[in-house]
Amino acid sequence: SGQTCEGGRPEATMASRSPAARDEHVAAASGDDGGEEATRRRPRGWRAIAFVIGLSLHLHLSVYAAASMASNAFVTPLTSYLIDRYNMKPNAATNANNIFSGALNFSPVVGAFVADAFWGRFRTMLFGIVLGIIAMAVITLSATVHQLKPPSCSALDRQAGTCVGPSGLHRAVLYAGMALLVAAAGGTNPTGLPFGADQFDASSERHKGGLARYYNVYYAIAMLATFLALTVVAYVQVKVSWGLGFAIPTALFLAAFAVFLAGAAAGVYVLVPPEGSIFSSVARVVVASCRKRRLPLPHAGDLRLQEEALYNDPSGQRRSVFKLRLTPQLSFLNKAAIVTDAAAEIRLDGKPARPWRLCSVQQVEEVKCLVKIVPVWVSGVMWFTLMTEMTNYTFLQASTMDLHIGKRFTFPPISIIAVFYLAVALFVPVYDLLVSGIARRLAANKARGGDAGGNGVTLLQRQGAGLVVGALGFVVAAVVERRRRRSALDDGGATSPLSAFLLAPQLAVMGASGALNMVGQVEFYNTQFPDQMVTLANAAFYCAQGISSYLATLVVNIVNARTRRRRGGSDAGWVSDDINAGRLDYFYYAMAVLGAANFVYFLVCSRFYRYKGEQAGDSVADPDDEPEPARDSASTGGSEAALLKT
């Protein structure tokens, strides 16, 4: 009696939209994806298909990598930049960073709405890319032109508090660049991943394998781009100039965009037209079910007869949307599809005359899918909160440690965070080829032994493993912090003589957690959301990060409030401005406990969740369906990933 969001073969859910089940829109030089009648690309053999999809993905991923590097070159060191170059106070810089980070991660919700309702993914992404280039150009100018930034401040003046702060003009130019970057993220973040998925045909086994690998490749590229931003670009920013550090990724972004436009002009992209916003459909289902709350459901004991008695759009499902069957869970919403007066509620063409009073079974099931995913999404928010705590305070730890590589070369403290992103990028293929491969072989052995339940590693299993590994990462961090703090106090109480690379293990373990949970989250959303909500699925992923930035601050404030009282009301809680005076190791242990609690919560959610396409015992099943749990992307055969190698 677990929750389920059913709809037929789970293979179809691995693609956000299948070109075999929808109109394929070939990009013209104008980039129009919604005006002229769609033209279907004729089969030209496997080599031609592989070339077209491989080329479009390479062009798409190249601009994504450049955009990710450019954005992270500004976003990641923002607090340090505002303090060092704009002479802001630490608290003011931190508050500005928190507001900016929240807006940056919430903007994809607006972008998802625009893409689904009006522009389509290609146009929305194109708009975001253009705004991103303009934003980085403004930010580069603000860091280069003397009239657009405050005068430099020496270390002595900074300690004395006599630095000249930013003027109104300085703030206006800087905030204008930040606002443009927020708008750009709203256009690119929710559309980038599904636009790449649109290039695959889920009816083809080869395309299905390429799509399965695509999720891993997409985020591996993102992690590598962030790694370069935190190492090479960060070194240029700190050691040479902030202006040059912003100009380099901006130039790469512009060059990749030119290549991306060349691909659009060559007509290699498959474009999907907008299909209408899901938000109005959700509201209609809620309103209609509330209005009919007193009506009994027809055939309450027989789900098949109930589905036949409820309203189904006779015009047939949209070709780009996978049909969802009626399910018994959240049956209150089923009342939205009850037909009370066919003559008054249904027009002659079969459409509802009052869409706020009568909804189709498809609309009802789409709302159920959203509701059932929310508990799993909450667990993802908590994982991002813990990840934020790890990266924030590892940076503070590195600031008090030896940053030398050899005798002369030193690296910026922020660069130590690059270990996390490098670990994600490296562990993804290891998991893909080794861990998931072993799981598939074990599942195959069980199947040969008569156990039909072996399916390899499922998406929820992957996420759960990431939660466990993340909690262990905080235990490692606590042990390292105890050693760092002791050495700093023994050395005079300011800095530790230990190398900052001692922090690498905790970041590496957290990176392995990210390869499991973070990548697992994005694939879970993209495969379990209803097909026309895939843009919203990516917006939900970024919203989780936005909420986590605020929750991370709240967690620290709560911990400090509790630990200050326990220590006699002193100013120093566990997370003190002076980490040597606080007890960061205790805080890390507390985060490990919080991670373990999140894992228990996740287990409860997983117990009652059923995958999209997985048939429940009391649901309506098509005799041709062969349901199975949605598997992790790595569960697809490796030979089918050849498309990404073209």
Describe the structure.
The strands form three sheets. Strands 1-6 form a two-stranded parallel ribbon. It is mainly alpha-helical and 646 residues long. The chain folds into three domains: 223 residues, MFS general substrate transporter like domains (Growth Hormone, Chain: A), CATH 1.20.1250.20; 82 residues, no CATH class; 226 residues, Growth Hormone, Chain: A, CATH 1.20.1250. Strand 4 and strand 5 form a beta hairpin. The radius of gyration is 26 Å and the shape is globular. Helices cover 61% and strands 2% of the residues. Helix 6 packs antiparallel against helix 12. The chain contains 16 helices and six strands.
Helical content stands at 55-70%
| Backbone structural class | mainly alpha
Which CATH top level class of the largest domain fits? Mainly Alpha
Largest beta-sheet characterization: 2 strands, parallel
Strand content: under 5%
Overall pLDDT, averaged? Answer: 77
Total domain units? 3
The CATH homologous superfamily of the largest domain corresponds to MFS general substrate transporter like domains
Using the coordinates shown, work out and report the CATH topology of the largest domain: Growth Hormone, Chain: A
Model regions low in confidence, pLDDT < 50 over at least 5 residues = 1-54, 450-454, 615-628, 633-646
The count of DSSP E runs of length 2 or more, i.e. the number of strands, is 6
Q: Please tell me how large the radius of gyration is.
A: 26 Å
SSE topology string: EEHHHHHHHEHHHHEEHHHHHE
